[in-house]
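REQUEST ID: PR-0412
SUBMITTED BY: lab tech R.K.
PRIORITY: routine
TASK: structure prediction, single protein chain
INPUT:
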Amino acid sequence: MPIETLVGTTLAGYTVRGKVGEGGTSTVFRAEHAQHGTVALKVLREKLQHDKTAVQRFLREAQFGARVEHPNIVRTLDYGQSDSDRYYLAIEWAGGEILDKFADKAGPLPMRDVALIMTQICSAVQAAHNVGIVHRDLKPENVMYDPATRQVKLLDFGIAADTDAAPDQRLTRAGFFVGTLMYVAPEALSGELVGPAADQYSLATIAYYLLTGTLPYTGKSPRELFSQLLTQPPVALNKAKPTLTFPAAVEMVVMKALSKQPAERYPSVEAFAQAFDAATAGTLVTPASATGAVPAPTPPASPAQDDDSGGGFFGKMKGLFKR
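STATUS: complete
OUTPUT:
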């Protein structure tokens, strides 16, 4: 049965109500279950049912999701293979909207709003790190945000990695990087297995984007962006947009987490979150050695809705489920 015809049918006890999104390896549906209620049901594409690597990656996502329990991570409810041989993954249905879409409409966001969002995402990522899992694909498209409750839910462990996995258990070939180029850490471009510091870099890029509506690198093509990530420093936060100004402490925290060398970032995602929260609250003092001077804190200007709000190459590379 073609995957498009699953709507209106029942798969492993889940009544499929409608399609939510699709990618290269799977399709996501909204479904109903007698016990779990409304869920997001991810189904592996039929053409990949007998692809060993695709199946392993799909099941690994389910297993990683089941390993990490946190209020800011969508719960993995069920996974397996149906009677019709379909591999499926049922996860908690998260309310709200994709953070990327919310930020496009409402951003750039106030500093304290960004701090609240980042504190929740970082707490979720730290929980994953505590059990040896590196997410490797942190970006606004993989975060649900409910403006009504201001709650965040982290999605999609599809390309996450187990830091304790033996080389022969890894599903990414050496020399091939995984992740989304606009948010990936420079060290990931070598194709080597990255550590928690790479997730911190991605989180800092998310914070930068939520604060400014732009990204720390300006490449308009994958080749140009790849080159900039390897050879150039990121654009300083206070140079991202002429209409926006941030306290020196906020800029210092974000740029430290965006350091090209992992060892120069914060010792953990939790430490980055705490520093960012303190900086946006005005309780973190910027050392003179970080900027050459200690400027007086300057409140950010009101977000400007101008033409440079995330278009071009960045605007073309969006979507919730890329695989």
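NOTES: Residues 111-130 form the longest helix (20 residues).
REVIEWED BY: pending
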